[in-house]
Amino acid sequence: xxxxxxxxxxxxxxxxxxxxxxxxxxxxxxxxxxxxxxxxxxxxxxxxxxxxxxxxxxxxxxxxxxxxxxxxxxxxxxxxxxxxxxxxxxxxxxxxxxxxxxxxxxxxxxxxxxxxxxxxxxxxxxxxxxxxxxxxxxxxxxxxxxxxxxxxxxxxxxxxxxxxxxxxxxxxxxxxxxxxxxxxxxxxxxxxxxxxxxxxxxxxxxxxxxxxxxxxxxxxxxxxxxxxxxxxxxxxxxxxxxxxxxxxxxxxxxxxxxxxxxxxxxxxxxxxxxxxxxxxxxxxxxxxxxxxxxxxxxxxxxxxxxxxxxxxxxxxxxxxxxxxxxxxxxxxxxxxxxxxxx
Amino acid sequence: xxxxxxxxxxxxxxxxxxxxxxxxxxxxxxxxxxxxxxxxxxxxxxxxxxxxxxxxxxxxxxxxxxxxxxxxxxxxxxxxxxxxxxxxxxxxxxxxxxxxxxxxxxxxxxxxxxxxxxxxxxxxxxxxxxxxxxxxxxxxxxxxxxxxxxxxxxxxxxxxxxxxxxxxxxxxxxxxxxxxxxxxxxxxxxxxxxxxxxxxxxxxxxxxxxxxxxxxxxxxxxxxxxxxxxxxxxxxxxxxxxxxxxxxxxxxxxxxxxxxxxxxxxxxxxxxxxxxxxxxxxxxxxxxxxxxxxxxxxxxxxxxxxxxxxxxxxxxxxxxxxxxxxxxxxxxxxxxxxxxxxxxxxxxxxxxxxxxxxxxxxxxxxxxxxxxxxxxxxxxxxxxxxxxxxxxxxxxxxxxxxxxxxxxxxxxxxxxxxxxxxxxxxxxxxxxxxxxxxxxxxxxxxxxx
Lengths: 342, 449
Description:
The complex is a heterodimer.
Chain A: H1 2-32, H2 39-57, E1 60-69, E2 75-81, H3 82-97, H4 99-121, H5 131-153, E3 169-170, H6 172-176, E4 184-185, H7 186-208, H8 210-220, H9 222-227, H10 232-254, H11 264-279, H12 284-301, H13 304-309, H14 313-328
Antiparallel strand pairs in A: 1-2, 3-4
Chain B: H1 8-24, H2 27-37, E1 48-55, H3 62-79, E2 105-112, H4 117-129, E3 135-138, H5 142-155, E4 158-161, E5 178-180, H6 185-200, E6 205-211, H7 214-230, E7 233-240, H8 248-255, E8 261-265, H9 268-280, E9 287-288, E10 291-292, E11 294-299, H10 302-308, E12 316-319, H11 328-341, H12 347-366, H13 371-378, E13 381-383, E14 391-393, E15 400-401, E16 404-409, E17 420-426, H14 428-431
Parallel strand pairs in B: 1-2, 1-3, 3-4, 4-5, 6-7, 6-8, 8-11, 11-12
Antiparallel strand pairs in B: 9-10, 12-16, 13-14, 14-15, 16-17
């Protein structure tokens, strides 16, 4: 029982990340009709916003130690953060401890700008080109972005600890009266709640604001909305920025779970595409549903009891489900007729 | 002298003179000249000899590869008489004089393995066929090492393995043209088990998470073998895909498995991720079977420890070499490397530097670059002064035998490099095993002709 409960929790936090990436991916596809292979790279860039903020907070001046020596026996050059010098160790310590949640603010701004620049500077030239061209150019862009990150941050993962207060594990079993074996990391629980809040906010934005209404109308019939005198292209550009910001904050918050490296976007990209396809191309609800569903299935497939019956199932479960869904429901779980069928 | 009217007496005189000259020529001179003229793959013709450094310059091990390349460049400098000489000054063999090898200046070409067997073979092939590399060295994965070793055997050049820890490199997949300085999982098991026994006792239940490729299988096998000999029980051993990223789905079953030890047979990025996540799952704060839950990482590197940060504290593992060692060789190497690059070398850098020096020394002692001759000079070669105490390059499997370091994540590091403390130097005798244990056949040397 404990094991099943743990795998459900695990599926939920994993699914949260899949759903957040897939949400942006399907939003861009639904509005602009572009298959954006650089979306995983945006998730990675968001994660590196957290790393960058941490580094900015750690900008230091050098002070030659009078007592300590370095590994060559020469006087040690100490790095003292300016922050510590200006505000004292307590404030500096607090800011550094909470740098990951604070980095969300940085990620939203930076990623929205990156998204809009990407759409205006590159992707708009490919609207009328075949999907294959779009895939090639965005895939190329993803490689360029990750190589830039590798150049500046190296190839090794860079750990970003969660704030001390939530660094450990929560005794979920005690809350539910299920014993002490049911423990789960605080940060992963927070990530699941965070993803739920972001997903809800995006839906609310599209559902309850005039901007959202126009965007939804544009997704249905771009031409008619344009004939009504609305500059739908500008709205869609902003949607691209929104999708990039969602991917970015998803990445920034994911850093305590997975120390970011330049390649993490590619690792998530393929899975997210499967999520979008299973959910239904262009369907926001489908992306979220499929994200959580596939996250949970992947977790269950890794259980020893299941692997002993079907060895290797943990590696193929997602793709197996995708094949079954596409054979039975060719438009995906919640796909609408007419999307990606021209 | 003219031979317009040759007669029997003249011919006999000339023949006798030639015979006397040949006999009077110093042995070392004629031997070298003879060997140089022999036909073998990529015999250097000009005044340089080219070595091929095949390291991961992109991909998940790019940082490790960058450190290997730094070490190779340093070794080449020292061989050519530049810099402070590094471990050439402490190396027990004095054949090398800092003026190149066999009178030729050492040059090099590089290739990118990308930590992929096919890419590594392609770059090694390019260096052998297009650049005339007489020896290939490097790599930081056993899968790559075994693939490139096979290629070098077929091509007829020497392969000096870089960082490769699987038993198979000098076990079932060994080749005559391949040599390994780095230790292997069998030695890790033999060195680590007694330390684990002292620290955690003999009544333990272990759960393995294992990288699903040759090195992971090899390490899982060795650690199981030695810990089960101690009396430990292996509860489960789960294979995880290489580069899985998120290991949470493999960690949650550990919580209810009844295990009180988690063995992470992961390296590089996988180890950083799995260890960080295991700590987040509260495994190190857990009590199981009335004991503290512990994690073991059998193969450690300083670069990995830097990636995992605080999480490595108190965790046991083994390493081939560590920059904090205080013997003369290690000190000389750390000084050379540290002054050139500003930080201490990793174990990958150390093994690659040593391999270059060992190859160059063997070539110098045999007076040729012919693979079979260089190989014979390495076989059974005993040396000291390269940072691991007295070392033997065993003839039967081309594996180096030396002391093994058991290390622990340091509780209070003094600097960002000072992450591991050496808790025991396991003597060479304790980690030696009969060559037939790991199977395989060296087969004959291939000189590429």
